[in-house]
Amino acid sequence: MTLNNLSNNVHRRIINGIPSSPGLVLAKAILFQPDLEFTYKDQITADQIQDNLDRLDIALNDTISDLYTVLNKIGENKEEITQVIESHLMILKDDYFIDLIRNQIKSGTSVEKAIVDEFDKQSNLLLKSKDLLLKERAYELEQIKDRLLLSLRNKCILYEAAKDLIVVAKSLSPADVIKFHDAGAKGFITEVGGITSHSSILARNLAIPMIIGVIHALEFIKENNEIILDGYSGQIVINPDEVSIRKFNEKLKKEEDRLKIYGEIKDVKSETKDGKYIRLMANIDIAKDIDNAMIFGAEGIGLVRSEHLIITLNRIPTEEEQYQWYKSIVERAYPQPVTIRGFDIGTDKFSMGVHKHEKNPALGFRGIRYLLAEPIVFKSQIRAILRASVNRNLNFMLPMITCFEQILKAKELIYEVMDELCRNDISFDENLQIGVMIETPAAVMIAEKLAEVSEFFSIGTNDLTQYTLAVDRSNEFVSNLFDSFHPSVLLMIKKTAEAAFSKNIPVSVCGELAGHPAATKLLIGLGINQLSVSPPNLLDLKRRVLEIDYSEAKIFAEDLLKVTNCENIREKLSINK
Amino acid sequence: MIEKEVLIVNRAGMHTRPASQVVKLASKFKSEISLERDGFVINAKSIIGVMTLAAEQGAKLKLIIKGDDENQAMEELCKLFESGFGEDI
Fold first, then answer.
1. pLDDT, tens digit (0-9, with 9 covering 90-100), for A485-508
2. ipTM of the complex
């Protein structure tokens, strides 16, 4: 056996990172290690000043024209990407900032040291911020700095070499991501970088699988190693064996089938024929459902049922367990918003260690009633929620509200926890949006009052139907009476929507009705502008939205509400029981 | 010279995109335009400056404008801040 054969015959190795852009790819690796370690002198003599100023201008012009090339390569409808690159251009053209570098050179500092000094000064200012997003921007300043330094040394990067390969790097700038994509790279692995960084957002936008935070990736992965990159789980298989490859192919086949069905309309804007935008979101129970939701084009997560954690663990999770779970969800969905609902757990679902048996759990100790009665549990949930809210894409929802005071009491506890966090210097979103789940007739009847102290409403149609009609759906003797299209339920939805409009807060429907084929036109006609359904229902829902004419739907809903007979309503909506 | 207090109303605060909008608009005017936060003053025509203000939702900033077109500049910049940079509030 030759040495060459030996090196090709290396063992399989699995390493893990944080999945930051979904997708599956099997390809060879290329290591991207721009040579940034170099020495330069700090001070220059008077006769070198002009030369250093000129070199600065050349490096700036180089980098700027390079970014313009990137900008031109970005297709239409990619406003988000365009803005990222434009903001980098603005930094390079920021006279006030560049003058700081020029002034340093004029006083005898070398162009290299002046660039490093001034960029580091600004990065450090940003790094001191409590704001995680601003910290990410500090890393981008680093990347712009590195790009300038490379240009000063006349080094350019051969992006084309990455065609059909997986790029492994310490970090990647947004421009790198676009250029590698353009050159035909198949995936990205980086040692550092945040899931909320522009580079991660770009990779998601360009649909290139990416895994970040892979410690020592550049040591474990060698040039030309074959790699399986799983952007769903964050797993990397280096030198996969036959079994791994077979499993990969099976997974890939499934993914391709799924994308074939849904790919086309995923990126179509969800609006009615006459241009009313309807935000379509997903309800999820487990973190990995987010990928499905995003593949199907969800614009946010409308409902995370936090009690899922209790059910899985069969106990109340610790603050840390909750924090990790919430964090993984909000980061994965970023920049889309995520609404997490406080524990809504009844004795029907969970009895261990919570409270004793109840005769009628649906009318019992659940939702906000339980949370307010168990402040230790509630406060630990609030702490976890607040800690996970730093990226400002988390909304918190209170379940089972029946009284105005319940919201005030919950908010009091939330503010208390905010004070504690402030004292301990822990960051959170001071403007955490706190909303209310409208799922009881009581809440509907006082909805206008509730809207005064809520930042959003979400209608849970299953419970609202159960409580309005006094029907337990799981009771076979009466389950045939369970009907979310009952005129009383529809009037409840209408009243809730009107209350929300009067206070100008968003109102969504996140119950089963949101995904019912016959309900879409009706709900939109009633003024609902956000619908949240389980991920697989998203695309069918979008297809229906695209077919609807809003002005017609309004009249349709109005007429329908005049019908008092349940059978007639069903007939008009062509629903077969 | 004129001064006015402005409030950051959009949810995500003055991150990259809003900061670019402020700089773009400020650069259209001849006047000197500064933003002050808790005694920290920056040039509103400098993207780096505006970014380092780290202004989150609810932050109060002081707009200080001096020059021939100060009134026009104040009016347009205030409008931009009030609109929440066209983002979710």
1. 999 999 999 999 999 999 999 999
2. 0.84
Span A497-522, average pLDDT? 92
Q: Are A265 and A539 in contact (CB under 8 A)?
A: yes
Element (H, E) at A21: strand A18-21
Task: Identify the DSSP state of A434.
Answer: E
Verify whether the Cβ–Cβ distance B15 to A125 is below 8 Å.
no
Q: What are the distances in angstroms from CA B80 to CA A355, A445, A499?
A: 53, 38, 29
Q: Is the dihedral of CA A38, A41, A47, A53 positive or negative?
A: positive
pLDDT in tens, A301-325: 999 999 888 877 878 899 999 999 9
- Looking at 3.40.50.1220, 3.40.50.720, 3.20.20.60, 3.30.70.2860, the CATH number of the domain A277-572 comes to 3.20.20.60
Instruction: Render B32-65 in DSSP notation, one character per residue.
Output: EEEEEETTEEEETT-HHHHHHT---TT-EEEEEE
Class of the CATH-defined domain A46-152:
mainly alpha
Domain A3-34+158-243 architecture: 3-Layer(bba) Sandwich (3.50)
Q: Would residue B15 show up in a list of annotated catalytic residues for this protein?
A: yes
User: Kind and range of the H or E element at B20?
Assistant: helix B16-27
Helix (H, G, I), strand (E, B) or coil at A15: strand
Q: CA B26, CA B37: separation in Å to the nearest integer?
A: 17
Asked if residue A28 lies in contact with residue A161, where contact means CB atoms within 8 angstroms, the answer is: no
CA distance A218 to A223: 9
Q: If you write DSSP's letter for every residue of A138-184 in order, what string do you get?
A: HHHHHHHHHHHHHHHTT----GGGGTTSEEEES---HHHHHHHHHHT
Give mean pLDDT, residues A377-390: 96
What would the mean pLDDT of A238-247 be, rounded to a whole number? 94
In a mutational test of the B interface, the residue from A92, A102, A121, A125 whose CB has the highest number of chain B CBs within 10 Å is A125
Per the DSSP assignment, residues forming a β-bridge with B27 are none
Q: A137, A201, A430: which to substitute to probe chain B, counting the most B Cβ within 10 Å?
A: A137
For chain A, give every domain's residue range. 3-34+158-243, 46-152, 277-572
Domains of chain B, first to last = 2-86 (3.30.1340.10)
* Lowest mean pLDDT across A35-44, A213-222, B71-80: A35-44
